[in-house]
User: Fold this.
Amino acid sequence: MKYLVEEREKVLIVYFTEKLDINSSLEIEEELTEKLEKDIKFVIFDFKNTQYISSSGIRVIVATHKKLQQRNGALYITNISESVRVVLKLVELDKILNIVENTETALLEIDGRK
Amino acid sequence: MIELELEARFENFVKLRENIFHFLESMNVQSSLISEVLIVAEEIFTNIIKHSYMGECSKAIYIKIFLEGNYFVLRFLDYGKKAENLNIPESLGQIKGGIGGLGLYLIKKLSDSYLYYNDGGMNINEARKKI
Assistant:
């Protein structure tokens, strides 16, 4: 299992369970596209168990971020490790994404925006 | 030294990743550095599949992994399409179309040197990382 998806009051939470490389990203992208067909405006990507992200994973993040922005929603990134933070910083996604400490904090922020 | 010959399939990156990981782990290289080397390897490997062989998955990619002084060297050889005017983005602003060229940008940022050249129909991608 490369990831787990949970839906809580129209918030989609994706828990990545391993590396976000070319193979897992292709699989996740396919399922996310399907899930985001629904009326979802807020998504949380929880990286608690992920130490690795390549450009394929970054593309999943950017595509999801853009899609949610068009719906006046938002993507939240939580529980990132130092190695994932380094990559997000390199591509300057740390400047545009909502990176928060953990998923509970993200859920609180989203509650305030609903 | 590790030498691998892999078919140009995304799923074969797993084999490459395992080989690099064990090679570097056996030398007690710190995990953050291993992650950076793996990203560079993945970006080169997927670029060859996408842009050199363009999805022809029965074609082979030849990989040599070795130490040269303090540098870990990743050398990839393939016989696909020659990359014309390869433009390695120096900054994010140079990446056209939003996220195109992102892989090359990461290779550039995460390795100490990267070069590409074509020699008589053979493409050579070589990245070096100080360890």
